[in-house]
Target: F-box domain-containing protein
Amino acid sequence: MTPITTLSYPERLTTFSDHWDDCLTTARQLAAIGHVSDRPPLESLEPGSRCISCSQFVRKELSTRAFGDNGTQDYMQHFRGFRFHTAHCERLQVRIPLEPQALLAGLYASQLGSLVSKFEEMASGKPAREASQRLPQTSSLFSLPTELRLEIYAQILPKLDEVTEVLPLNRDSSRVITRAGYEKTGPRDTTKHNILRTCRAINDEASDLLYSHSTFQFASSKTMYLFLRSIGKRGRQLVHLVDVHCGSREDAMAFALLASCEQLRVLTIRLPRPKILLPRSPLWCVDGMSGLLELSGLEAVKFGHCESAFGCMDDSKPDAEVIRRELTRPRGTSGSIRTINGCLDV
Ligand SMILES: [Zn+2]
Model:
């Protein structure tokens, strides 16, 4: 039996499967930082999770506040009053992007999450109305065939580029912005977005059109994480195409969150090494790769260029085919790469 201190990411994730089904996004992120589901010995205490290395216990309520979809403002507040690890835990090398300690001097942290440019309208939308509360559609627009309505939206909505590059707003900031928004000067014309505010049904149809045809490109997994948090659960449901430069300490958290993009179809990976793992890889590398390999159900996996002294992953490397095979397996099925004492057996 594997000792608890060496449980791999998929093994840690499995421990959450009974009590955390209502907050799977949080559970994935907890597993990524080295936690397993745990219930304190006294039944009167709340359930939570515990670090497999330092045994730090965190109540479920606090984790869901930090990692769940509970508003995009003031993330500093969400991490107040507790720690996921003790001061010298080896798991601290897996970085939690929004944790105040991870942000240099905490600059802009209190303003976090306001996604600018074309996504601004989406982020400021009213909370979704339950299906049962929705009113029947009486607008004559809905008497048109769906294809025709989609054609109308396509004519009205601004075109996102085929590739939408997302950047951090400032070097120390947790806010993100599209490159087009970053480089644009003067006021933005948001009038075209007003169709998204017309009603929920139009918003659903039109926002799918807005989001799902563009590849979102990120220069780091941290930026991808910040973006995925900013657009919330609904936004993540609409992301189909992603291009990310990985190989950093935020990989584990970023891929844990990317797993909640259930419509993700095509992933372009820019990995600055020629193998899945190099010998004696540190824990953050192992967990980052485990998070990537936990993704499944993709239609296509591509390998993009990146600068690296070690050479980068591309289709000429044998490991590229292994990654592609793992990520295109049927959604939700277990991967075929075994783990030995918490390390991938590759
Ligand atoms: Zn720990």
